[in-house]
Recover the amino acids of this structure.
């Protein structure tokens, strides 16, 4: 009997965030996070995904988080939430590049894939069958592959990759 390897994927890099659960590298289910509701929606959405499968936090092999580039606040919320959960439970943390996650959907098409992510205040959202394709599914699947390869992030030094300079800057004297 093969034991399922569960990975929770989190993508809070953009206004439309999501969370997903994968087993053995395949997404089982995902939930969108309300715009602006990343901080108060993560815990309840994660609980809902786990409860639907009859599993608990201790059953997770890892938590994969989009490291960016993306929203300053969104990236910090997702990574801080995941780091806290991993620190308290001993679950492994994996960081996944937003570019890698965006390209993941086209992995079977062959050839080179270029990705374009949000720049400044504009937003690009990919639509599949008339609805937003959640990024957390790709993050969970790629995170599972990284865990299988023996990769995990250091909880103390893991940080977002913002992708651009902050809007607020110290004044030049």
């Amino acid at each position: 009997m093969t034991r399922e390897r569960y990975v929770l994927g989190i993508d809070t890099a953009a206004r439309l965030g999501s969370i997903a659960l994968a087993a053995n590298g395949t997404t089982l289910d995902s939930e969108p996070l309300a715009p602006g509701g990343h901080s108060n929606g993560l815990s309840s959405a994660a609980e809902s995904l786990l409860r639907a499968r009859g599993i608990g936090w201790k059953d997770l092999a890892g938590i994969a988080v989009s490291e960016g580039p993306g929203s300053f606040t969104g990236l910090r919320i997702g990574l801080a939430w995941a780091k806290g959960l991993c620190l308290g439970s001993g679950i492994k943390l994996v960081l996944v590049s937003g570019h890698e996650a965006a390209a993941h959907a086209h992995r079977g098409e062959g050839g080179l894939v270029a990705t374009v992510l949000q720049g400044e205040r504009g937003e690009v959202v990919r639509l599949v069958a008339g609805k937003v394709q959640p990024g957390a599914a790709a993050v969970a699947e790629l995170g599972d592959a990284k865990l299988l390869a023996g990769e995990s992030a250091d909880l103390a030094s893991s940080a977002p990759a913002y992708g651009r300079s902050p809007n607020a800057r110290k004044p030049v004297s």
